[in-house]
UniProtKB/TrEMBL annotation:
This is NAD(P)H-dependent oxidoreductase. SUPFAM superfamilies: Flavoproteins (SSF52218). InterPro entries: CE1759_FMN_reduct, Flavoprotein-like_sf, FMN_Rdtase-like_dom, NAD(P)H-dep_FMN_reductase. The keyword Flavoprotein applies. Transmembrane segments: none annotated. Residues 5-155 form the NADPH-dependent FMN reductase-like domain. Pfam families: FMN_red. PANTHER family: FMN REDUCTASE (NADPH) (PTHR43408:SF2). Keywords: Flavoprotein, FMN, Oxidoreductase. It comes from Microbacterium gilvum. It comes from the Bacteria.
Length: 213
């Protein structure tokens, strides 16, 4: 089976950023899960702030500069996406939304996506489900059920003891790995192959030999 292509989009503004930190931990968890299943994976990580000017130029002119066009091509070819954004004013960042706006409308149709978000307070934890998930659903992507939100306290001594961050990361990663592995299985199954209706080891000779008996 060909290596699966995982694209990671981080919309963090600062360097370093908690958004990138969460993206890295989600990526590591997904790769570990897929590796345990024997699924080879190629990863491409993009910091959207590096393409901010290109994104704006695309919005103004309708044409993507080459660096941005290469990112968009990688996203369109991905077998799975991890997308993480900081939360500003109760929703995704403008940079994150602007990148999604310049994507081709059908670029991520049917693509499984693991959503992540970061903010200073847990009060924004519902933003994934009321803002980010509908955005990807509109594009006919397939967000996995678990979205992973991380507030400032999740990184320090005050981390949530009821639903610790790593537990949420592992659950979301497992769901994305399930989707990736499932896509691989569906690609391997050829509905027109002899095995699909003759069974393993079957042949046309066996099928024809039964005629007239």
């Amino acid at each position: 089976m060909a290596a699966r292509r995982l694209v990671v989009l981080s919309a963090g503004i600062s360097d370093p950023s908690s958004t990138r930190l969460l993206a890295d931990r989600l990526t590591r968890a997904v790769l570990d899960d897929l590796d345990a299943r024997g699924v080879e994976t190629e990863v491409s990580v993009f910091e959207l702030r590096d393409y901010a000017h290109d994104i704006m130029n695309n919005m103004l002119t309708g044409f993507a500069p080459k660096p941005l066009a290469e990112v968009m091509a990688s996203v369109a070819a991905a077998d799975a996406i991890i997308a993480v954004t900081p939360i500003f004013s109760t929703s995704y960042s403008g940079l994150f939304k602007s990148f999604v706006d310049v994507l081709d409308r059908d670029a991520i149709e049917g693509t499984p996506v693991l959503l992540g978000a970061t903010a200073g307070t847990p009060r924004h934890s519902l933003a994934i489900d009321y803002a980010i998930r509908p955005l990807f659903t509109y594009l006919h992507a397939e967000p996995v059920p678990t979205g992973v939100f991380a507030a400032s306290d999740d990184w320090g001594q005050g981390a949530d003891r009821v639903a610790p961050l790593q537990k949420r990361i592992d659950r979301g990663a497992r769901e994305l790995a399930d989707a990736v592995a499932g896509r691989g299985e569906s690609e391997k199954a050829d509905p027109f192959s002899p095995e699909s209706y003759l069974g393993e080891g079957g042949s046309f000779e066996t099928l024809l030999g039964g005629i007239g008996r």
